[in-house]
Structure formats: structure tokens, C-alpha cells
Amino acid sequence: MPIRLLSSEVSSQIAAGEVVERPASVIKELAENSLDAGAATISISIADAGRTLIEVADDGHGIPSDELGLAASRHATSKLVQSDDLFHIQTLGFRGEALASIGSVSHMTITSRVESAREGARLRVNGGISEKVEKVGAPVGTVVRVENLFYNVPARLKFLKTDVTERRAIDSLVTRYALAYPNVRFKVTDGKQVTLQTAGDGDRRAILAALYGVDVAKQMLEVMATEDGFSLTGFISAVSLTRSNRKEITFFINGRWVQEISLNSALLQAYHTLLMVGRYPLTALFIEMSSEDVDVNVHPTKAEVRFRAQDKVFSFVQRSVRKALLAYTPVPSVSPQLWGSRSVPSEPRVVGIDWSIGHDESLTTDDGPLTMENTSQSVEREGPSSAVNGQSSFSAGVPLLRLIGQIGATYIVAEGPDGLYLVDQHAAHERVLFEKLMAQHENKSIPSQSLLAPEIVTLPPQSAKVLLEQLPFLNHFGFEVEEFGTNTFQVRAMPVLFAGGSPSMALKALVEDFEEDESPLQAEVEARLAARVCKRLAVKAGQALTSEEQRSLLNDLENCQSPRTCPHGRPTMIHLTVDMLERQFGRKGAR
């Protein structure tokens, strides 16, 4: 095949493949143009998750009518003049490819007016072909309307994910920019529903509250540090507030959202030894540095950057975040009340950090919350199992155990015929709650209990959309949840099994750990979601339990089909054999 020049249509679509991956990519490019234009208000409207309509309107400087036709051409930009400018980039956009790329794979209409003009101008671009610019009445600013995205590239259209996933990507993008630019008013409308709206008053914590809820915003720790020309501001989560993935880790460099591995590594290094394996912080951090110290011209989407002194930046971020964590987060310590007293406490004792669920609200039986009064009744009702003189008979591979006590308000100690058993009270209670809930589910008899006062729960926009898809699941499992405003839900009832638990924790557990491709109705999803709820509502580590509660938990664990692991596969107990103990104490020689 002979070598030939590509047509402008083909070359434009190739460029579009680098810049426009999905509807969220279109919104990113248009929003960044609005920010570069000095907009104080940015309004975003979508339909069908951006497939049929994306409209971004701003009140920025606008585009002169005589430059509007050129704005939709490839490699046309007002932000660069010569090659040296690439090393002093002060704007978000600079390649001059965004509008041309978007216009080549959609029906695009640009309407704009500058303040000095009495009338605006409009340009229509269909599949990369521009029509004649026409005069129209318009307010100061720019409106870009993108319709029928990828209509002429059906293969690209097929690769888009579900509407829920694409909307979540859009919401996630806009929430990040709302945090990065708190002085700009952002508004996102999906059909007739407003899914996100910020005041633009510069208060980042207020934006956090609007995005993630007041409880999360209160737990976020502020970071402010400067060193050798670098500045770091923003928020990080306390060690008690984590996620199961890195999706909520956000970094902005000079106002640009970037996904840089070295920055993520520096952040996680700062949390080293403070978080459980597989848990990640929720952060929104903003780094300012000289434009000469960072190269943003290394990727078509401008999502990756290179630092002149990468080790220096890594060290700065790691030390600044670690310093903030240590300043805000006290080291948990065991309460002296746990020592020197053999009496059974009349009130739950909490060690170190307050884990938010009291014992009388977490341990439950079929009759409701586990208390001193109904514990003995629960034990007597268990059938083949028994608890006599502190002993519980265990089946399913777990031997007869005699309760000894609790260590560190986290582990239950029990003696068996072949050694010592340490039971993780949180993992064990997870297993107990999970099997009870799934048994009720199989019998189609999950009892529900109305709350004395409905609880209002606010979720991030992307999480709210996921929860809407899961309302049938919630209703089936004994919850009564309904919409109560933008991204807000009202919980009226919960399963009796979780009586006394936190409705907000239950709802957040259902949505916060969802992977991008996970569908809320796919096979086995009910068991997975039930496991998440049980994990959130199970008794926590650091929570002191009475002897009766410890014994009842062991008794409930005995009746489980899989007592050795929690629903997520973590062990519920560790066995130390008599032989092992004798070796450790030197009673037997090493072999």
C-alpha cells in the first residue's frame, strides 16, 4: 500500500481518539476552557449520560466573532505563541485540539459573545465540517452544545459503559474541579434534576459537605504546608475514614487534575502503618509550584506530568501529609480501666478512638439488640449448642471452648482442649450477622423495624445514582428508603437484625466500594452487598464487651456454617496449640 497523507477527517478522528474517550472527557475539556476564560459560573447539562447531549455554559470572557471559526480548527489556540511557552504554561488548555476533536465526532454548536460586542456569534460543526458563523443574541460568555456524541464513530459508541457508570464518571470529574476551584459556582443538571450545585464562596469544607455529607466533611483534616517554592493545601481523611480503592485520591498541580503515580505513592507512604492493608484515604490535595518545575506536555489528555525534581516533590508531599496526620490524630491507647478491675462493666468501655457503635446497638439477636436481659434467653434457645459454666460447644471444626476474656477490647480469648483461641470480635460478628441475614433472605422473611425518627443521609452525586439503582435491593432486605431531595435519602426502617445500627453507615457501605464495571443487579451481588452492610454494622475493634456479650458472640459463631472466616475471607480466629506454647516457654527443645 503506497504512503499517502491522511484526510483531514481521518486525522481529526484520530486526534479525537486521544482526547475524547467518553462523555466525561468532553466535559473536562470544555470546563477547563471555561476556567481559562475566567468564568465565575459554569453550568453543565447532560442527557442520556452525555450520549445525546452535553452542554457547558459559562460567563467567561467569550470568543470574538471573527475568531470563532478558527477556534474549532485543529492546532488553533490563544494560549501559546512560540515553543518556549510550553515550559511556562499557565493555563489548563494549550494544545488547541479539544474543540476540533469534539466537533469531529459530534454535532457541536458554539455560541459566544465578548463583553465589548453588542451581539454574539454562533458556529455549528457537524462531524468536523464547520458551517458559516452567524450573528445571534447572546449573554457574555460561551455555551458549547455537543449532541449525538460518536454518532459517526459507532465502534467508539459501543465501547461506552452503562449510563450509571458514565454518569458517575461525570460526577466524579466535576466534584474534583469544584473542590479545586471553590470560588467558581458549578451546577450539574441531569435532565430536570440538579445533581450538583456549589456556592462559589471559596469554602472548600462546605463543598466537601455538599459532596460527601457533613459527617465526612467534619472528619477531613486540613493540610497547609510550604517549602522551597512548593505549596500544599487541601484535605486528607482521618485514619478512621477510608475507602477500599484509590478512586477518592485527588491531586491537582497548578489547578490541573493529574494522575501521577509518584504523588499517590508519597501519600500512601505518609499513611504507612496507620491504615489496614487494602484501605486507602480520601484526599483532595492541591500543589502549587513554578510552571518551570513541572512538564504537563507529556500526554494528550494532560493527565500525566513530569517533575524536574521528582524526589523533592515526593518528600515534600510525604512529610507534609504525615505531619498533618500526627498533629490531628492521637495515638490510640488502651484505657487504664481495662486493667486492675475484675468486675463486669455496667457500661460499654471504648478504647482510644470512638468507633461510633455502642455494644448495645451492635450485637443483636433475633429479638433485637443484645442486652443483659435477653442474652441468657438467646443462649437457651440455641438448640444443640449450650453454654454451661462458661463453655460453648462448637461444631463445624471448632472444638469445645471455655471463655477466658477479652484483650485490648478487640480479641476474645478462649481455651480449647488443644490450646488457646483468639477470636477477632469484629470478624466473628460480621460472619454471624451475614449468615443470619442471608438465612432470612433465603426464607423470604426479613423482619423490618420502623425508626422512631427517619434518618436523613446525604451522599456524593455518583454514589446517590448508584443507590437509586439499588433501592429494590434495599426494600427486599428490610430497609425502607426513599429520595428526600438532591443526593439525599430518608431511611424510615431497617432490618430487625440491625436494630440500633446506623442507617447512614449501612447506605454508605452499599455504594462507596463499587467498582466502575460493577452492576448492582448482577449475579451474586446480593450476597456481596449484604456482606458490606454487615461489615459496617458489626461490633468494632476497640469496643469493650461484657462477659455475657462475649459468650453470646461465641455461641452465635458456633451456629455458623463457616465460622472460621468473615464474609470477606478474613480469619475470625487464630489457634495457638499447647505444643506451640510449650516450645515458646522452653518446655520442649527445638527440633
Description:
The protein is α+β, with helices and mostly antiparallel strands. The chain has 3 domains: 193 residues, Histidine kinase-like ATPase, C-terminal domain (Heat Shock Protein 90), CATH 3.30.565; 121 residues, 2-Layer Sandwich (Ribosomal Protein S5, domain 2); 220 residues, MutL, C-terminal domain, dimerisation subdomain (formyl-coa transferase, domain 3), CATH 3.30.1540. It is 32% helix and 24% strand. The chain has 18 helices and 29 strands.
- Share in helix: 25-40%
CATH level 3 topology of the largest domain: formyl-coa transferase, domain 3
Write down the CATH class of the largest domain: Alpha Beta
- The total number of structural domains is 3
The largest sheet, given as strand count, sense and whether it forms a barrel, is: 9 strands, mixed
- What is the correct CATH architecture of the largest domain? 2-Layer Sandwich
* Mean pLDDT rating: 78
Query: Regions with pLDDT < 50 over 5+ consecutive residues?
Result: 331-396, 515-523
Tell me the fraction of residues in β-strands, as a range.
15-25%
Q: How far apart, in Å, are the first and last alpha carbons?
A: 74 Å
CATH homologous superfamily annotation of the largest domain: MutL, C-terminal domain, dimerisation subdomain
Q: Which structural class should the secondary elements be placed in? A: alpha+beta
Quantity of strands, as a count: 29
Q: Outline, from the CA principal axes?
A: elongated
Structural Rg: 29 Å
**Number of DSSP helical runs:** 18
